[in-house]
Design a protein that fits this description.
518 residues, mainly beta, 24-stranded antiparallel β-barrel, two-stranded antiparallel sheet, 2 helices, 2% helix, globular
């Protein structure tokens, strides 16, 4: 249960909430008996916490299932979550922090004909708040591990795994008009397929997946009839004390929804993974990146290095250094004005491997972590970000350039008692100017913690808008039960998980979160 009590603070944009108190709550119940399983989830939003879709209002059981395993078969009827490969053609999942749930209701069958081969088939509709999507999803997936399938390769250092997927969406016809005289004849069935391969040999790894989607005119791509495709590449090397991962991504027209007129975070058939660093510190997450399904090209480099212990720089316990760099650009899509004048339908010309000129996002992160002695450890983060607000729906706003410094220190008084201090500083001349944040947290593991924090927008050009956002919090944990309470202010912003984002309005008041398992 997450519940918030709201107080008006018009200065920071925390306006009156008619109910005064809002709540999101859910309960999962799972039953297992041999090869049989069943479960359900009861949810209640009375009313949804500020920032979540208002369509969630109400109570009910939107998720239930029964399942049975028999030999080579695993069958589920009801609601289920599933992912094919990286998710570029199919991923159903739920994320409470986003208020997102696109569970499929229907039937899923898994079949393992021989060791090393897994076949999946799914058929159903997606959750649409308290209803189901108008589009029907059908899909099949195959995953093959040659090392398990071929006995002679079972002990080989070379590991080979490959797979393929196909997903089709059917939605009944609806009349869509573009321009003054053009009525589109939309496809009832939209298919998407992908192929993937993963190779590893000793310390080296290589993976690739390519997805293709036929013409799928929808509200996200402004009803263009162009095809869509996506490519994910990753390479890695790892040994004791050193690791490196290089990722590349290219997307074009890959929005895939079970209702063609929807936008936002609803009814996505697929998932387009972000390759930028997922920031956990508050100021580093002020300007998060949202995946651009209509077109983007990006690279990410992650390097981890451990300076050995008992060396000049490593000290007695060693030092960990992590470098993460991301660059995301627009693709090279060019609007075809001649074709548009002829047909009235928007279409584009595209060079698959050409990078566009517009930088959407750049993120350079250097983190150094060191344990000084048995009681004191700390880390330092140096971050540079270039952020185009267009990626979160703010066209025409200037690009934001930010430099961030974060220091995080922990001192242990006893094996169960510790004091953690955190300081963050964000410097920018754009947007609302520079910020600072400080946090002190005392923990009595594993039972209690107490914290006090403050964010201060001291760099705002408008002096009267240099607000403080203080917050005090406490939590108690006992076995699988946890309760946390907090009181204070929350700045307006955006929260993102894996490149999927939702806006968070400013708030001022009391929050309580209760989690329990039995």
């Amino acid at each position: 249960m997450d519940a918030q009590y709201y107080q008006v603070d018009s200065a920071i944009g925390a306006y009156a909430i008619p109910e005064k108190m809002l709540m999101n709550s859910w309960t999962n119940i799972t039953y297992l008996n041999g090869d049989f399983s069943a479960g359900l989830r009861f949810e209640t939003y009375l009313n949804p916490v500020s920032g979540y879709y208002k369509d969630l209002k109400g109570s009910g059981v939107p998720y239930w299932y029964v399942g049975y395993k028999s030999g080579q078969f695993d069958i589920t009827a009801g609601n289920f979550y599933e992912q094919f490969g990286s998710g570029m053609v199919l991923r159903s999942y739920e994320e409470h922090n986003l208020g997102y749930d696109n569970a499929i209701r229907g039937v899923r069958v898994k079949f393992t004909p021989v060791k090393g081969v897994v076949l999946k088939g799914i058929w159903g509709t997606q959750r649409f708040f308290w209803q189901q999507s108008p589009g029907i999803i059908r899909g099949a997936d195959m995953d093959v591990s040659l090392n398990e399938l071929i006995n002679s390769m079972s002990g080989s250092k070379l590991k080979i795994q490959f797979g393929g997927s196909f997903v089709s969406k059917y939605q009944e016809y609806e009349e869509i008009s573009v321009g003054q005289d053009s009525t589109l004849k939309l496809p009832l069935n939209v298919g998407a397929g992908s192929g993937r391969v993963t190779l590893s040999y000793g310390k080296f790894g290589l993976g690739a997946e390519y997805a293709y989607k036929i013409n799928d005119p929808n509200a996200v791509n402004k009803f263009t009839f162009d095809h869509g495709d996506g490519l994910l590449l990753n390479a890695s090397f790892s040994q004791k004390g050193f690791g490196i991962i290089l990722q590349a991504k290219r997307l074009n027209n890959m929005s895939f929804k079970s209702k063609r007129t929807e936008t936002g975070n609803v009814l996505d058939v697929n998932y387009l993974p972000a390759i930028t660093k997922q920031q956990t510190y508050s100021l580093a997450a002020i300007y998060p990146y949202a995946t651009q399904p209509n077109g983007e090209m990006g690279l990410n480099l992650q390097i981890n290095y451990n300076i050995p212990k008992n060396t000049l720089l490593g000290g007695h316990y060693g030092t960990d250094i992590s470098l993460n760099c991301s660059d995301i650009y627009e693709d090279s899509k060019i609007f075809d004005s001649v074709a548009f004048l002829t047909t009235g339908i928007p279409t584009y010309k595209l060079n698959f491997f050409q990078v566009g000129s517009r930088l959407y996002f750049r993120d350079i992160n250097l983190e150094i972590s060191h344990k000084f002695n048995k009681t004191f450890k700390g880390s330092m983060n140096l971050i540079h970000q270039d952020y185009d607000p267009f990626v979160n729906g703010h066209e025409g706003e200037p690009v934001i350039h930010a430099n961030i410094v974060i220091a995080d220190m922990t001192y242990k008084f006893t094996p169960t008692q510790a004091l953690r201090g955190e300081f963050q500083y964000l410097q920018t001349k754009q947007d609302q100017g520079s910020w600072s944040m400080g946090t002190l947290e005392y923990s009595f593991a594993p039972l209690w913690f107490f914290s006090i924090a403050d964010q201060w927008n001291h760099g705002n050009e408008i002096t009267s808008n240099r607000y403080h956002y203080p917050l005090v919090a406490a939590g108690y944990t006992n076995n699988a039960n946890r309760i946390q309470v907090s009181y204070g202010k929350q700045r307006a912003g955006i929260v993102c998980v894996g490149g999927v984002c939702r806006p968070v309005p400013a708030s001022n008041g009391f929050t309580i979160t209760i989690t329990s398992s039995f």
